[in-house]
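Appendix B. One record, verbatim.
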Amino acid sequence: MELPDLNKITTDEIQDPFLQNKNIQFDVLRLDKIHPVISGNKWFKLKYHLDNFNAGNYKGIIAFGGAWSNHIVATACTCYLKKIRCIGIIRGERLKQFSPTLLEAANYEMDLRFISRDKYAQRNSYEFLGSIKKEFPEHYIIPEGGAGKKGEKGAGEILQYADEKNYTHIACAVGTGTMFNGIKEAASSDQNILGIIVLKGWKVENESDNIAMFPNYHFGGYAKFDQPLLDFMNDFFRLTNIPTDFVYTGKLAYALFDLLKKDHFPPGSKILMIHSGGLQGNVSLQKGSLIF
């Protein structure tokens, strides 16, 4: 397998009478196209963490995530390609049958270590990280989802693959907030940055005239969904031929079209939706739920 080809990133314009009647341009930055595994924003969030690893005298990399984590499988694949020892700290007790995500990570030779959910909740604490460093000395620790300043710096480079000056609004899904923070820093001060929060209980703060976060499109919480969301994802694919996932990008697209219907965007707006990849999570759905 080859490393991600960033030349595969395209910007697809959605052609729809609804948008034309409102005099609104809607484009999708297709980060999902760069690689089948290291998909979407993952490569960008890993980039400077990998630079740190290479600059230090490390023997391996440690990543955190759940049984369906895009970050886990992307990190496993990246380390496999670069011949780096990789350990995955997985939330929850070891199950007899691995999820397809964990099976794929194991196939990329990631050493999977399972911990209780209570212990996993302490993953950012000084005591927990100290115990991990003691157990795995000389290993570089990447925060969950590639978070942190290094992840944000890499995410900020996403906009280099679209002529961002053409857009009045740039929108992305928000999980850890790493990509959202990176894009905020990289965007022009006169652009509107929209974050669609995909998990329940997020406390919205630090908004401004051009920074807005929308907490009511999580469909019940992280990785939660209902039939209307799946129906929308199928309709969106029929319209655009663009696949989305039910954890991040499906909720993002749903929110943007709902906001369009509510006239949130003034006529003449040019919207860029960041497709952050993560399609592998759809494998957990019942077969036939999606048409793609």
